[in-house]
Design a protein that fits this description.
With 226 residues, the protein is α+β, with helices and mostly antiparallel strands. The chain contains eight helices and eight strands, in the order βββαααββααααβββα. The strands form three sheets. It has a three-stranded antiparallel beta sheet. The chain has a three-stranded antiparallel beta sheet with strand order 4-8-5. Strand 1 and strand 2 form a beta hairpin. This is Transposase (putative) gypsy type domain-containing protein.
């Protein structure tokens, strides 16, 4: 995948409305009726993008719930995206179109962007901007942000906290020393495999599920790229 290329039952209440479990992600319901903008409705008739046969079918056919701005906006009001004291002017968070998938590139895009899953922020406490440790791991693995399976983002986050508690500087090389990779063809989400003899982090008893339809765009502002 190129660099440009979430859930549970029950409900709870907040000032903005009722949070209802949909079986995948908790969604906010409001008494206000919101109509879909005409532009978003027109996109429903677009043809799917071609040329991504090198990606597994489940990746290239998985579309996002956040193709509707009325679904994305409540999440962005509820889930922190940026580190504290970071200007909100560095990125813009946008919905995807009805034909966008996480494997798609920036073809014909007016601004540079990358995709992220909502679970990165709501469950794994990832925050923007990324530090050198995170970017170093992604570069060494040669994967896009959304290509690394959420389970492995959890490993990465836990390793950072472990190093900080020991007053150590986390490095990509030291993190990847504990893992192997098994790339698959066609390309799909990449998982890290713990080396049994030296593993220091326990594996999840359950894998992250229901995250695949929760991606949106992070657009990099022009002033940041300059």
């Amino acid at each position: 995948m190129v660099v440009s290329g979430f859930g549970g039952d029950g409900s709870s209440h907040s000032d903005g409305g009722t949070m209802v479990g949909t079986g995948r992600i908790p969604m906010e319901t409001v008494t206000e009726v919101r109509e879909d903008p005409p532009k978003e409705i027109v996109e429903s008739n677009w043809s799917a993008k071609s040329g991504y046969q090198w990606v597994t079918q489940d990746v290239r056919t998985q579309h996002s719930l956040f193709r509707w701005s009325r679904l994305l906006k409540p999440w962005l009001n509820y889930v922190p995206i940026l580190e504290r004291n970071i200007s909100h002017d560095i990125v813009a968070l946008e919905r995807v179109s009805v034909v966008n998938c996480v494997c798609h590139g920036q073809e014909e895009a007016a601004e540079g962007f990358f995709y992220m899953y909502m679970c990165h922020f709501s469950q794994l406490y990832v925050r923007l901007p990324f530090d050198d440790f995170t970017m170093g791991v992604l570069r060494l693995l040669n994967v896009a942000l959304t290509q690394l399976h959420p389970n492995n983002w959890a490993y990465l986050q836990a390793f950072r906290v472990l190093c900080q508690s020991l007053y150590l500087q986390p490095s990509p090389q030291s993190f990847l020393y504990f893992y192997d990779t098994r790339p698959k063809h066609p390309t799909t989400w990449l998982s890290l495999i713990s080396r049994p003899s030296i593993s220091r982090l326990e594996a999840f008893t359950q894998s992250f599920k229901h995250f695949k339809d929760g991606f949106f765009k992070v657009v990099v502002k022009e002033s940041v790229r300059l």
